[in-house]
Amino acid sequence: MGLLSFLGIKSKREKVAEFMEKGALIIDVRTPQEFQMGHIKESKNIPLDKISGSIKKIQKTEKPVITVCRSGARSVQAAAILRSKGIEVMNGGAWNYLQSLLS
What we know:
The structure is a single chain. The chain is an alpha/beta fold and 103 residues long. It has one domain: Oxidized Rhodanese, domain 1 (3-Layer(aba) Sandwich), CATH 3.40.250. It is built from 6 helices and 4 strands, in the order H-H-E-H-E-H-E-H-E-H. The chain has helices at 3-6, 12-21, 32-36, 55-61, 73-84, 95-102, and strands at residues 25-28, 44-45, 65-69, 89-94. A 4-stranded parallel sheet has the order 2-1-3-4, sandwiched between helices. The chain starts with a helix and ends with a helix.
């Protein structure tokens, strides 16, 4: 058992698995053009500038959310917006990194 596990701190892989077991939505906040160049198969594209306008739709799903983007900067912003509206959310960071965790 590693120190982080001993302290009750979950790895990103464990946290992602926990969210996915709950049926999490993966929201990719990149632009549509970036999304078309490659994305996680199950992800939904809601660009960062459209997140605020999509809050009610996201809340209606009653599912936790994992946000992703190219590098993790926009997904952190999106996660903060969603969290402020009471949505269970985690920042997945870069989409291709999250994809590797899901494989």
